[in-house]
Write a structure and sequence with these properties.
CATH class: Alpha Beta
CATH topology: Rossmann fold
Strand order of the largest sheet: 2-3-5-4-6-7-8-9
Distance between the termini: 43 Å
Number of strands: 12
Radius of gyration: 19 Å
Largest sheet: 8 strands, mixed
Shape: globular
Strand content: 15-25%
Helix content: 25-40%
Low-confidence stretches: 1-27
CATH architecture: 3-Layer(aba) Sandwich
CATH superfamily: Alpha/Beta hydrolase fold, catalytic domain
């Protein structure tokens, strides 16, 4: 496992920046999904899944964290779950990126409940007192190793983004009955910075990015469904890396990889100048060493953000669909 002694990676990230009724299913059965777009997609926007602290002129302010939910207009009570985390170098980005909306409709129209999640970024950290936003040991490590103030804020934002992403998934579990989600079939995916958070979410322990900050420092933690637990079945990584897990290891001296980690689909451009293709091959090697099933799809001659890439005539959504159906044993109608 590579060790991080400084935060050069952050400087790289900084500069990138139809309705149809179906029979009611039993929750103990494998979910049924459609091979083609079948259902009208219902959308609920700007659902508050938690609150988090932001900095405004160095003053802590409670900030609602939002997600958009896409789900099929049917009567199924056994729907698989797909939560997606946008990219943006932890500097910005949005849950309403057109490519994410297209993907949300692709999966929701086939039977999934799909969530697109926003989270805190450096744009929400306008100050230098990070108490309550990251744990003290994370802050100390950042201040000792960051080469610039921007790198320091990016490191803090990486922690906050992870805390928020985990809170979003706990919200999904807490509200699974309302939207008829089967939490035995949870997929988490992301692109770029979102993929970094995805990998960390699936592989880190339940207590990571949750229990390091006391509620006395961050009272908004009480809004994050702390008692809920989750199990990620599959992860989807579009041009991401394990940099945040490396940070976790450097700060806390823990290695969270083990043979029970979720299965992983990786798509990464071979010419990516931002998150290098070698980051994808490293994850591939780690999974090979652990003996965990995964698929590594090099996107030949593609750079960063290769949303329109195709492999053997299939789009990223189609490739991901095939992976999830096969590996989760979903029934296709």
């Amino acid at each position: 496992m590579k060790k991080i002694t400084h935060l050069i990676i952050f400087s790289i990230l900084i500069f990138t920046a139809c309705s149809e009724d179906e029979p009611t299913d039993q929750s103990n059965e494998f979910p049924i999904v459609k091979a083609d777009s079948t259902y009208i997609v219902m959308v609920e926007e700007d659902i508050i899944y938690a609150n988090g602290l932001s900095l405004v002129a160095n003053n802590s302010v409670e900030m609602p964290q939002l997600l958009d939910l896409y789900y099929p207009d049917n009567t199924n009570t056994n729907r698989p779950v797909y939560m997606f985390i946008h990219g943006g170098g932890f500097q910005g980005g949005t849950k309403t990126k057109p490519e994410i909306i297209d993907m949300a409709n692709y999966f929701a129209s086939r039977g999934w409940v799909f969530a697109s999640v926003d989270y805190r970024t450096t744009s929400d950290l306008n100050g230098s007192d990070f108490t309550g936003i990251a744990p003290q040991e994370w802050i100390d490590f950042t201040l000792q190793n960051a080469a610039t103030p921007d790198e320091a804020r990016t490191s803090i934002a990486m922690y906050a983004a992870q805390r928020d992403s985990k809170a979003a998934l706990r919200w999904m579990v807490a509200n699974s009955n309302t939207y008829h989600m089967n939490t035995e079939f949870i997929t988490v995916g992301g692109a770029s910075a979102g993929a970094i958070s995805t990998i960390t979410l699936g592989i880190s322990n339940q207590e990571d990015f949750k229990d390091e900050i006391p509620v006395s420092d961050d009272p908004t933690l009480s809004s994050t469904n702390l008692d809920e637990i989750f199990e990620v079945k599959s992860m989807v990584d579009f041009w991401g890396s394990n940099v945040k897990l490396d940070l976790l290891e450097s700060i806390y001296n823990v290695n969270r990889y083990d043979s029970s980690d979720p299965e992983l689909f990786i798509a990464h451009g071979t010419l990516d100048p931002t998150v290098l293709f070698s980051e994808g091959t490293e994850l591939d090697s780690i999974y090979n060493s652990l003996g965990i099933y995964h698929e590594f799809v090099p996107l030949q001659d593609k750079g960063h953000g290769a949303w329109n890439a195709t492999v053997d005539g299939k789009s990223l959504s189609e490739l991901t669909f095939d992976f999830l159906v096969e590996r989760q044993n979903l029934q296709v109608d």
